[in-house]
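The instructor's notes for this session suggest beginning with a concrete chain rather than abstract definitions. Hand out the sequence below and ask the class to guess, before any prediction is shown, which regions might be ordered.
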Amino acid sequence: MIEITERPIAPELVVSQVKTAGSGCVVTYIGLIRDYSRGKPVLSVEYEDVGEKAAKRLQEIAAEIKQKWPVDNIAIYHRIGTLKVGEINLVVAIASAHRNEGFAACQYAIDQFKQQLPTRKKETYQDGSVSVEK
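After discussion, reveal the predicted structure:
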């Protein structure tokens, strides 16, 4: 389950979508907008995904996980648009029979998301300055 959305993400809904009767655990990661970045107080963060590239890359990450670990289900939900401090920007949920595989798969998903997703990130600080990353 891959979703890129402008709507708020409900982690409990994501968890309910991945767990199965055979799952011994659901390992989750909930990414939040921090109040400080680069030594400055943050006002908001804007995420922009261009075209279908981000969704395709998330599908590839999920496929890689299934090749590397015996997991039951994978969900990666990414929120785009302008988010305020404390809002959820990413939920990764991995259902698996055992925790070791679940944690390893979740860590991999997060690392790949941060390293490879073609998402533009624009941080706006309370002093009015802006930082843009690709």
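Then share the key points. The mean pLDDT is 93. Residues 2-133 form a domain with the Aldehyde Oxidoreductase; domain 3 fold (CATH 3.90.1170.40).
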